[in-house]
TrEMBL record:
GO terms for molecular function: methyltransferase activity. It comes from Cyanomargarita calcarea GSE-NOS-MK-12-04C. It comes from the Bacteria. Keywords: Methyltransferase, Transferase. InterPro entries: SAM-dependent_MTases_sf (IPR029063). This is Class I SAM-dependent methyltransferase. One of its GO terms (biological process) is methylation.
Length: 146
């Protein structure tokens, strides 16, 4: 379950996840939170917030609480690592346009594209790449028997 766990009603969803797992299966819940301490990532987040009228909370880590409290899974282990998404200008614009809560047309969209181009121009490396840095957390859980 990746980056959508917070949208589910916890208890019935966890029960269903346990039901459909193979006997040796595990549940992995993954969060990719932008590392806004990184210069480019912080600027990207600022641009996205500016362009969005419906920006979700940056951190959804509280969503793990139902997994820790459920009777359907146990032995929950957390693994953390850093992930860097390398993007050229077209990839950066494509990445932003893949976000459902950003405008696809109009003045705000045009300003979003201009801001992304400007950030890319000033912060890209010599090869023309920028990096969105994520702090990734993986919670791995084992199904419990009734």
């Amino acid at each position: 379950m990746r980056q959508a766990f917070h949208w589910f009603t916890p208890e019935p969803s966890l029960r269903e996840f346990r039901r459909i797992l193979k006997p040796s299966g595990r549940l992995a819940v993954v969060w990719n939170n932008r590392d806004n301490e990184d210069a480019f990532t912080g600027e990207y987040s600022r641009i996205i917030r500016k362009a969005s009228s419906n920006h979700p909370a940056e951190s959804r880590m509280k969503s793990v609480e139902p997994l820790l409290a459920t009777t359907h899974f146990g032995n929950v282990r957390e693994y953390k690592f850093i992930y860097r998404q390398e993007l050229d200008l077209n990839g950066l614009i494509g990445r932003a346009m893949s976000v459902s809560y950003l405008p696809r047309e109009g003045a705000v969209h045009e300003q979003l594209i201009a801001d992304l181009k400007s950030a890319h121009h000033f912060l890209s490396n010599r090869q023309g790449f920028v990096y969105i840095v994520y702090r990734t957390s993986v919670h791995l859980a084992e199904p419990l028997q009734d």
